[in-house]
Amino acid sequence: MTLLIERRGEFAVESVSLDAIAQRFGTPCYVYSKAALVDAYSRYRRAFADHEHRILYAVKANSNLAILKLFNNLGSGFDIVSGGELARVLAAGADPSRIVFSGVGKSQSEIVQALAARIACFNVESEPELERVSRLATDCGVRANVSLRVNPDVDARTHPYISTGLRQDKFGIPHEQALALYRKANQLPGVRIAGIDCHIGSQLTTAAPFAAAFERVIALADALRSEGIAIEHIDVGGGLGIRYRPEDEPPSIEQYVHALTSRLGERRLSIMVEPGRSMVGNAGLLLTRVEYLKATPERSFVVVDAAMNDLIRPALYDAWHEIRALNHRSPEAARLCQVVGPVCESGDFIGRDRTLALEADDLIAVLSAGAYGMSMSSNYNSRPRAAEVIVDGDRAHLVRARETIAELYARESFLPE
Ligand SMILES: *Cc1c(COP(=O)(O)O)cnc(C)c1O
Q1: CA-CA 20 to 30 A from 315: which of 133, 159, 322, 328?
Q2: Alpha-carbon distance 286 to 370, whole Å?
Q3: Nearest residue to 207 (alpha-carbon basis) of 162, 256, 247, 248
Q4: 344 among known catalytic residues
Q5: Is the beta carbon of 239 within 6 A of some atom in ligand 1?
Q6: Confidence label for 170 from pLDDT (cuts 50, 70 and 90)
Q7: Would you say the CB of residue 147 lies under 6 angstroms from ligand 1?
């Protein structure tokens, strides 16, 4: 789905113009389309057809309560990575039997919180974590469902910071140790083996690494079965990439799901997926306004009111986001420029070497910003976090108010005199 629509000279998300949104809610502002969010979920749902499956939205991609509630109402489950995310999905009304808990560093209190909520499954990442879950579950008088996150040693060929399935990564249990740890789990009093889990990275642009990882965990499932350890599900994690540049061609949701279901053969296993970026990434944009044009002898800068604290992906991963000028200036006015924010870091850029026709006060849309935008935002430089708006047809709903300055230091105090 195309998020940014141009109609009769106006730029809009669904039927609401971005000018109107900027007027009403200010900038910088994240704008999401409800229809695009629903579409992404529905495509996963349809692609699995009647194959047994569970879609577990990876909350960290965008954890706004309104988005969580929307996915919950559609039937989605959730993949969480912290006690904070557990509290969020419960606040959004999620059914605990559709929540799985991933992450390499679950604390005691987070595990207890998740046991008390009776979540569906812990994706366990190490032997000490397995022992901890078993002990805490025993203390609580319950048995926790677990799957072990296996590191299949597959190169996701993505950015090193978001590649997680190689031997040297901190994530998961090395493939060759998995069988022994499953045998151990089978003996522990506080756990019940439910599945196998893996997650090899994010923003994957080909299906081959998913297929390779899936084949490795299927082989492990077969080996477990032959030892009398039957598992119910394979959780393949998230990681499907989205189109950031027009020329990007990641597998479609349908191709990705087919690459999984077609490899199961006769096995009666449920497939779980934990998509984050591919559920929300192209359903959101960051709306920002030009403050200044600034030319140095070397370069032309466009200083906008959004910064790396709002959208850190360019600074952190050297990520590329399409930038669209929401005006109708003559193409001859376009010039090579650096789109930067007000933060005091040279790494504070939104886009480098872009050809754009812009003047002060113009609006800009930074596309594909629905995932890992707001959820990775910070208050660096004491900048209040942006507002978030969801457009539904011809209506725009504020789903997170812009932070106030007073909120930024409300929890701070002075030393005694
Ligand atoms: C981040 C993450 C996901 C979601 O990844 P996307 O690339 O956003 O789809 C899923 N599962 C786990 C364990 C993760 O850490």
Answers
A1: 328
A2: 8
A3: 256
A4: yes
A5: yes
A6: confident
A7: no
